[in-house]
Every structure is written in C-alpha cells, then in structure tokens.
C-alpha cells in the first residue's frame, strides 16, 4: 500500500482528501503545515505528498524546496493542491520540483486523474 | 410524462439521431430535457413534448436532439487510444504514407473537442517526426452547441484537470480568468463540421484513422452495422478504426477485424499483411 502525506492547514480539506485517497487504496498521514510535514518526512518518507500552498509556519513552496534537499527527499511524488490557480504560481511550483498540480476546488475525479498522471495509480 | 409521450420521444430520437432510448433511461430524459423545456418557456416535459409535435417546432426539436445526445468528454479519455495513436497508428502511417506525405484523421463523435485536441497535442509532441507531412484532423458532431464550444476551445478548470497533465496545460493553453483556452496553433489543426452519422458522410473523403468512440453504444444493431460499413467504405485497407472501451465490431460486421493484442483498435477486413507492419512499428517504438 502506498503512503500519502496530506499537508493542509484546513482539517476539512485534510478529511476530504483522506477519504478520496483511502478509496484509492492509499495509507494516509496528515500534517497541518510545512514544518510539521518536513518533520514527518524525516521520520518516514512517504510515496506521495498532497500539498497545499498557503499555510502558517512554512508554506507549501518552502516545504517543497526544503524537501528536495533532504536525504531521500527526491523520491516522493508531490502534487500541489491549492487555490493559487494562475500560471505564475503553477510555473513556480513545477520549477521547484512539483510533479503535478491540482487547482482547488477539486473532486474525486480530479484527484484520481492527477494521481494517474503522476504515475501513482 | 405519460407512456405515449415517452414512446413519441423514443421514436423521435431514434429517427433523428439513432439514439436508442430504453425505458430505464427516463431519469436521463428528465435531467437533460427539463432545462430545454424551461429555456423554451414550457412548464414541464409534457408541455415540451406537446410543443415538439406542433408545426414550426424545428428549433425546439433540434435542441431536444442536442440535449439528449451530448456526452461528457475528457482530454486523453481512457488514455490507451492515445497511446495506440502515438506508438502504433502514427508510426505505421508515417511509413505507409511516406510517398504522399498526407494523413487524414476523423473524430466522428468529437463532442466538445477534447478528443481531436488531444490528438492535435500528440501530433505537436511528435512534430519532429512529422516534418513535411500534412496531417488533417476533422471533428464532427451532430450538435451545433458542442461544435461551437469545440471551435472556441475554451474549457473550465474542472475540464482541464481531468486527463490533461499540468505540463501540457501550461504548454498548450492560455488562462482566461477562471477558464482555459487551447492555443490558436492547436485550434487551427482541427476542422469542424456538423454531421449526423445517420446521414451520408461520403463527401468528407477518405480517412486513414477514424476515432468513433462511445457513440455506437447509443444505436441499435442495424444502425451500428450500417454506420460501421459506411465508415469502412471511406478508409484505405491499411487504415485504423478506434472504438470506445465498451464497443466492438465482433458479431456485427465483417467490414473490420480487431487488431490482435491492441484493444479497441480495428482495421478494414480487406487489409492483408498489415499485421507485420503493426508488429514492426511496435518493435521500433520499444527499441
């Protein structure tokens, strides 16, 4: 079973994402900001990360840049999932090493399609 | 809706579009036709069906056909038909048409354009191999409304997120507020025509590759046979037909035969010795 870390400061979004991804047979853990996500990755590197952009402490982009410098940090497939839906943001995220990008609002079809694009399904 | 009205609608749709409406599809009728009824100022389906039978109801009748036959579509829907396009059909055609340097593709149920544009993207990605070739894509559908959308190539955020990798979105689309428009370069690669598959399409000319996905399922057996046989007449012996995942020619017509090991792919039955060509082109890709 693949392991996906869901990183979002909204508990509602984390819950929705967890439900969708568990249906797709992922094992889920959660983090509420980039800093906590980085700690979680140091303990156990996930196969996939669903990543919000705007969060307290450390935002999604800062987290991604830090993650890619960690030992084993190149391995997780990172899928951004954010309301930042303009070309400039998407381009920055992809350059920073994201693998796919979901523009909120999302549903199960979109998560499934994007995880498929990213080679996770 | 009383039984006689549903019966009228069934016969009307069968005659106009070939659509076979079974009794368990009543819910579909309600969800698709109530908006049409409202748009035309009718209180409900009973009034709408009455109005359809009056003289001069051409526009209303055409709106009803459109609403009932429009189908949801995604970019790179089912992915395999596009993998077959990149890895089997395109290499085979580049070889077979090396003298004429022209390839014609027909999307027979183009709907809102995602399928022809997905093929256009595949062609763009293979541009280096295609240098010097003229590739035409014709998208047809019987609905004016969907053709208009297809021609504009403007899609919602939901539509561009199902099947389209983000890199392709950045590369081939321009953001317009909450919407995304496919770039003019790709739009100019597809020509659009209004066409009802029940009517003659012999004037469209000959096609090397035909995508006819998820439309035959709505037709009854004799109509499926008729459409398939008329498609076969417009194809060279080494052409390819692509059907939807739930569709087949087997048991319907001898005009096509399945390409071994490539699900959803068919060739005209008179083709001889093309199997070797398929195998070779696959080998090339793998190598």
What does this structure look like?
The complex is a heterodimer of chains A (121) and B (287). Chain A has 121 residues and is an alpha/beta fold. Helix content of chain A is 43%, strand content 21%. Chain A has one domain: Response regulator (Rossmann fold), CATH 3.40.50.2300. In chain A, helix 2 runs parallel beside helix 3. The model of chain A has no long low-confidence stretch (mean pLDDT 96). Chain B folds into two domains: 67 residues, Chemotaxis Receptor Methyltransferase Cher, domain 1 (Orthogonal Bundle), CATH 1.10.155; 207 residues, Vaccinia Virus protein VP39 (Rossmann fold, 3-Layer(aba) Sandwich). Chain B has twelve helices and ten strands. In chain B, helix 11 links the parallel strand 7 and strand 8. Chain B starts with a helix and ends with a helix. The interface between A and B is medium-sized, with 18 and 14 residues.
CATH top level class name of chain A: Alpha Beta
CATH superfamily caption of chain A: Response regulator
Q: State the end-to-end CA separation of chain B.
A: 61 Å
Q: Please report the number of helical segments of chain B.
A: 12
Largest sheet of chain A: 5 strands, parallel
CATH architecture of the largest domain in chain B: 3-Layer(aba) Sandwich
- Give me the oligomer status: heterodimer
Strand order of the largest sheet of chain A: 2-1-3-4-5
- Can you tell me the overall shape of chain A? globular
Helix content of chain B: 40-55%
**How many structural domains can be distinguished in the coordinates of chain A?**
1
């Amino acid at each position: 079973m693949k392991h996906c870390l869901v990183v979002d400061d909204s508990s509602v979004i984390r819950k929705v994402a967890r439900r969708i991804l568990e249906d797709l047979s992922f094992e889920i853990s959660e983090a509420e900001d980039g800093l906590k996500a980085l700690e979680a990755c140091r303990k156990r590197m996930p196969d996939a990360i669903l990543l919000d952009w705007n969060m307290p402490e450390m935002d999604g982009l800062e987290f991604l840049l830090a993650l890619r410098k960690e030992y084993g940090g190149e391995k997780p497939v990172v899928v951004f999932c954010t309301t930042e839906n303009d070309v400039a943001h998407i381009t920055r995220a992809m350059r920073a090493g994201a693998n796919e990008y979901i523009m909120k609002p999302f549903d199960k079809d979109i998560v499934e399609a994007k995880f498929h694009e990213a080679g996770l399904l | 809706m009383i039984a006689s009205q549903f019966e009228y609608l069934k016969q009307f749709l069968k005659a106009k579009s070939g659509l076979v409406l079974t009794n368990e599809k009543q819910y579909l009728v309600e969800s698709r036709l109530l908006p049409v009824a409202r748009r035309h100022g009718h209180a409900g389906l009973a009034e709408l069906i009455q109005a359809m039978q009056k003289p001069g109801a051409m526009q209303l009748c055409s709106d009803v056909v459109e609403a009932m036959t429009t189908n949801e579509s995604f970019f790179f829907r089912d992915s395999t038909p596009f993998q077959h396009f990149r890895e089997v059909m395109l290499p085979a055609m580049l070889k077979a048409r090396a003298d004429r340097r022209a390839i014609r593709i027909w999307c027979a149920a183009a709907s809102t354009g995602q399928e022809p544009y997905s093929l256009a993207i595949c062609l763009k990605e293979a541009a280096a191999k295609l240098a010097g070739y003229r590739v035409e894509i014709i998208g047809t559908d019987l609905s004016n409304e969907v053709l208009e959308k297809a021609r504009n190539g403007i899609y919602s955020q939901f539509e561009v997120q199902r099947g389209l990798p983000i890199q392709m979105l950045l590369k081939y689309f321009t953001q317009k507020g909450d919407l995304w428009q496919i770039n003019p370069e790709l739009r100019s690669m597809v020509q659009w025509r209004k066409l009802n598959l029940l009517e003659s399409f012999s004037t469209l000319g000959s096609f090397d590759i035909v995508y006819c996905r998820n439309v035959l399922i709505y037709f009854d057996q004799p109509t499926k046979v008729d459409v398939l046989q008329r498609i076969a007449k417009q194809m060279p012996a080494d052409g390819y037909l692509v059907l939807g995942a739930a569709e087949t020619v087997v048991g319907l017509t001898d005009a096509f035969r399945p390409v071994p090991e490539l699900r959803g792919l068919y060739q005209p039955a008179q083709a001889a010795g093309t199997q070797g060509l398929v195998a070779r082109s696959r080998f090339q890709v793998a190598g």
